[in-house]
Amino acid sequence: MGNNFKNEVLSRRTFAIISHPDAGKTTLTEKLLLFGGAIRDAGTVKAKKTGKFATSDWMEIEKQRGISVTSSVMQFKYNDFQVNILDTPGHQDFSEDTYRTLMAVDSAVMIIDSAKGIEEQTIKLFKVCRMRGIPIFTFINKLDRQGKAPLELLAELEEVLGIESYPMNWPIGMGKEFLGIYDRYYNRVEQFRGNEEDRFIPLNEDGEIEGEHKLKTSGLYDQTIEEIMLLNEAGNEFSEKRVANGTLTPVFFGSALTTFGVQTFLETYLQFAPAPKARNSSIGEIDPLSDQFSGFVFKIQANMNPAHRDRIAFVRICSGKFERGMTVNIPRLGKQLKLSQSTSFMAEERSTVEEAVSGDIIGLYDTGTYQIGDTLTTGKNDFQFEKLPQFTPELFVRVSAKNVMKQKSFYKGIQQLVQEGAIQLYKTVKTDEYLLGAVGQLQFEVFEHRMKNEYNAEVLMEHLGSKITRWIENDTVDENLSSSRSLLVKDRYDHYVFLFENDFALRWFQDKNPNVKLYNPMDQH
Ligand code: GDP
After folding, report:
1. How far apart are CA 302 and CA 15, in angstroms?
2. Which residue of 9, 32, 130, 133 has the smallest Cβ count within 10 Å?
């Protein structure tokens, strides 16, 4: 394929924003979309927000399903870049959905609330990015409020997350006394309350504002200059290479709500954020610039239109070009499929996509063919991308159909909802009972609601509480070792799994059965 294709791919910037709830992800996303011209009014994203919901809101979401899906991938052009932002649910019960979304991005933006510092959910999501070695850019938000000292925040990055940082800019004051940011990259000061004409003040060779300026009359400016000197002398050096391999995070300060520092952030970010990278597969690395189309399914969302019971499989394109109507192989099924119904995503609407390239996300109409993790390819070369990490559920229920006459819809519903990946299905050995595992309680409630509403199958659920899940090396075990405290089940790939009642039961089992080698798939990353 020609230069045009190559330039198209190299202009892609595909990323997700990770944060603890309330740090400002929605606000920042919305401001980025405004700059990108993808939405016209502030408040658009807010109104469609789907991140923080309780079970009762699920019904509301259903009504708005079309909308919530369009905002799960947001696409816009900015200067020469084609930006794809993948949204991630804010609710922690949906975190494994987020984990998989992170498999489909090339970088991540981590938002931190300057007053709260690094919070629990941020730590979890950060670890997933770390495991994949993807570049992480940090936006420290809410500088218009009094927060922690900037040096303290950098220390937290290092101590809590174990990542070194390079501040691209540095605040001058904060809260009521927030004057702006000292921009080390563009060598200028950006004023918080400046007019358009004097928003940027250039710095001289010594890194200072030349001559007299009202900013200099405040002690805050002197303090910033002192801290900048400290950073220059004792701070980390900027290294594009280390940013690219995820060991150094560029840090930006700003205030999403007041749209301060957001454009500077976006422009700098787009320069350093990576274009689509090669991905590992069963036949080695797949070059995003290669001709052969390939991609993988990282998310399936069911029943977008309740009248048609359709589903959309979200595919991250990893190489080549997608063209509507093309035929692809699905190596898992050994089957070919014609992709005629496809969708691309804008912030405000869904539209049919005719063409898309490496780095883009497309939505494929699905009638139950795809599974999370499926590879799609064209050409003679069949291969599969690396498996997506399997999350380890912590909570379990035993589930059965309330009405035995409805067994058929019950099984169909379970199969389809399990394929979406939010819940995991297990069967007890010998007795063949169905168990479901999830990372959060909300998943079960949504499951129950959807089974009833979408499959007309009411379910009975018996809560089994939290369990420790362990798979077995070699996948061989004496089924008689199953007991109530160490329940032996099979996952949906028919592999053995032990569900231990607690840590004590796990250790006790290991002492008694040293020959059974247990492992947790999440530990292998
Ligand atoms: P999310 O949960 O991460 O999506 O956070 P939101 O974007 O919904 O923001 C949470 C709250 O913080 C909202 O009330 C926002 O208005 C507020 N907020 C977001 N950014 C800023 C900021 O820069 N300054 C201030 N003062 N508040 C902000």
Report:
1. 23
2. 133
Per the structure block, which two tokens stand in for 356? 């898309």
> Out of 29-38, 351-360, 468-477, which region has the weakest mean confidence (pLDDT)?
351-360
Strand, helix or coil at 60? helix
The binding site consists of: 19-26, 87-91, 141-144
Pocket probe mutation, ligand 1, options 20, 27, 262, max atoms within 8 Å of Cβ: 27
**Per the structure block, which two tokens stand in for 477?**
């075990």
CA–CA separation, 313 and 383 (whole Å): 19
Inter-axis angle of helices 441-455 and 407-419, nearest 10: 130
Residue bearing the bigger pLDDT, 267 or 49:
267
Does residue 255 have its Cβ closer than 6 Å to ligand 1? yes
What tokens were used for 330? 């699905």
Least confident of 96-105, 254-263, 479-488: 96-105
Taking the model in full, what pTM does it have? 0.84
Compute the distance between CA of residue 180 and CA of residue 143 in angstroms, rounded to an integer.
Answer: 9
Mean pLDDT of 342-357: 62
Q: How confident is the model at residue 208 (pLDDT cuts 50, 70, 90)?
A: very high
Mutate to test the pocket of ligand 1, among 19, 20, 22 (most ligand atoms within 8 A of CB): 22
Going by pLDDT thresholds of 50, 70 and 90, the confidence category of residue 58 is very low
* CB of 440 shorter than 6 A to ligand 1: no
Which DSSP state fits 150?
H
Question: Which helix (H) or strand (E) element contains residue 425?
Answer: strand 424-428
Q: Is 29 in the pocket of ligand 1 (CB under 6 A)?
A: no
Instruction: Write the ipTM.
Output: 0.99
Residue pair 318/375 in contact by the 8 Å Cβ criterion? no
* C-beta separation of 518 from 471 below 8 A: yes
Task: Establish whether residue 19 lines the binding site of ligand 1, counting it when its CB lies within 6 angstroms of any ligand atom.
Answer: yes
Asked whether the beta carbons of 24 and 142 are under 8 A apart, the reply is: yes
Q: In a 10 Å sphere around its CB, with 0-12 CB exposed, 13-18 middle and 19+ buried, how is residue 82 labelled?
A: buried
Read off the tokens for 482: 């199953």
Q: Is 54 within 8 Å of 126 (Cβ atoms)?
A: no
* Mean pLDDT within 177-197: 91
Q: Which two tokens stand for residue 288?
A: 């995003």
Q: What angle do CA 337, 98, 120 make, to 5 degrees?
A: 170
- Express each pLDDT in 146-160 by its tens digit: 999 999 999 999 999
For 167-185, the pLDDT digits (tens) are 999 999 999 999 999 999 9
Rounded CA separation 72/87 (Å): 5
Residue nearest to atom 17 of ligand 1 (CA): 24
The DSSP secondary-structure symbol of 159 reads I
Write the single-letter amino acid at 424. Q
What are the distances in angstroms from CA 513 to CA 152, 479, 491, 496, 520?
Answer: 48, 13, 21, 15, 17
